[in-house]
């Protein structure tokens, strides 16, 4: 009998505190408890929406799940790896191989074409030029902008840029895809198209976690986790 697979991501009693004393002779900064004793588990093939008011801890939680930040207390585990036990280089490697990130403001490199932006994460994985170009072109075709391969970001609409960002996030075939307000700056129709793209990913075995104020995304998710003042007040 095969054993059940482990969760893709786990937060175990995680807290993140900012501020406090900066040294013996320096004035302390106000302490902000952005996350407070958060525990949750994300499974493969699951679409989870993180909701909550501004300042509730949504972005902080995504940053911890991405390995872009570390908890003050508790433990974050990605693909069976405890991030607290990793060096900075090890976290970068884990993020490169296991995590895809869709930023709200896209973070595309302006001098590169859509295809080159998507292919960029494959450079660090040592994938050859021909394979990189083919994989990037295939993904851009799948997200509906295969005719815009050579266009730079300033030649693309907001929706097209977001599609490039999604293609870039999944080009390495990560087990976990994180998206921070992916429809926040898009019109309704384009936002719906982006949501449909994200909804396809769990069917490919990926876990998808989206932080959003968008009720449409929350309704489409398999599970909704609400944060309030850094704590989980609803999970289901």
Brief overview:
The chain has 236 residues and is an alpha/beta fold.
Could you explain how this protein is built, in words?
This protein has 236 residues and is an alpha/beta fold. It has one domain (45-69, 88-235): Rossmann fold. It is built from seven helices and ten strands. Strands 6-7-8-3-9-10 form a six-stranded mixed β-sheet. Strand 9 (223-228) and strand 10 (231-235) form a beta hairpin. Helix 3 (114-124) crosses helix 4 and helix 3 (114-124) runs parallel beside helix 5. The two termini are 29 Å apart. The model has no long low-confidence stretch (mean pLDDT 90).
Q: How would you describe this structure in keywords?
A:
six-stranded mixed sheet, 236 residues, alpha/beta, 7 helices, Rossmann fold, four-stranded antiparallel sheet, 10 strands
Shape: globular
Q: What kind of assembly state do the chains in view correspond to?
A: single chain
CATH class: Alpha Beta
Helix count equals 7
Q: Can you identify the CATH superfamily? A: P-loop containing nucleotide triphosphate hydrolases
Please describe the biggest sheet, giving its number of strands, its sense, and whether it closes into a barrel: 6 strands, mixed
- How many angstroms does the end-to-end distance come to? 29 Å
Helix content: 25-40%
Sequence stretches where pLDDT stays below 50 over 5 or more residues: none
How many β strands by DSSP?
10
Strand order of the largest sheet: 6-7-8-3-9-10
Beta-strand share of residues: 25-35%
What's the SSE pattern? EEEHEEHEHHHEHEHEE
Examine the coordinates and then state which fold CATH places here, giving the name of the CATH topology: Rossmann fold
Q: In the residues, how many domains can be counted?
A: 1
Structural class: alpha/beta
Rg from C-alpha positions?
18 Å
